[in-house]
């Protein structure tokens, strides 16, 4: 759901005020580089303005309160755009899934120090498909996360 949270986690820890100041002081350089359109867009500044208008309602500054919109921007840019392009080019039937289970543990929160994490981030579904090492909690029978894991494994194996 919020795959882009994995990318913005570097903005939302450490000296957050300084990072947002840099972003707001020079958005015409930082956004094109960060979103990888500085060399592909005919007019990167125009793209930046369109992004600010669409995702941030044309706000003068991007603030910490806008982390959900920033997450949506990076989700769309780094994940949704490529997935939809692949679907469009594939000649056979394609099935996408949208993992939105609000679990008790998230990779973004744990490994990327993202206290403003808006929900489910990239790779969180793997916690329910494979045993994980490190700080990932062990799933316990009768726990909602355990039940979700069983449902996901059943769905994925039946689909395959």
Automatic annotation (TrEMBL):
Query: What InterPro entries does the annotation carry?
Result: AB_hydrolase_fold, CarbesteraseB
What's a Pfam family in this record?
COesterase
Keyword Glycoprotein in record: yes
- Which GO terms of the molecular function aspect are on file? carboxylic ester hydrolase activity
The alphabetical list of record keywords is:
Glycoprotein, Hydrolase, Serine esterase
Domain (Carboxylesterase type B): give its ranges: 16-160
The answer to keyword Cytoplasm applying to this record is no
Similarity section? Belongs to the type-B carboxylesterase/lipase family.
The molecule here is called Carboxylesterase type B domain-containing protein
Species for this entry: Cuerna arida
């Amino acid at each position: 759901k919020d795959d882009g949270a994995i990318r913005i986690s570097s903005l939302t820890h450490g000296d957050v005020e300084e990072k947002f100041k840099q972003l707001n002081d020079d958005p015409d350089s930082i956004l094109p580089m960060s979103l990888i359109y500085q060399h592909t867009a005919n007019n990167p500044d125009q793209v930046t303005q369109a992004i600010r208008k669409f995702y941030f309602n044309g706000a003068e500054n991007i603030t910490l309160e806008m982390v959900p919109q920033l997450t949506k921007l990076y989700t769309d840019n780094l994940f949704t755009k490529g997935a939809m392009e692949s679907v469009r080019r594939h000649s056979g039937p394609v099935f996408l899934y949208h993992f939105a289970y609000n679990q008790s543990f998230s990779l973004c929160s744990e490994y990327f120090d993202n206290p403003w994490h808006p929900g489910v981030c990239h790779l969180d579904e793997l916690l329910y498909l494979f045993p994980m090492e490190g700080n990932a909690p062990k799933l316990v029978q009768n726990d909602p996360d355990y039940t979700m894991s069983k449902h996901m494994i059943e769905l994925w194996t039946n689909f395959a």
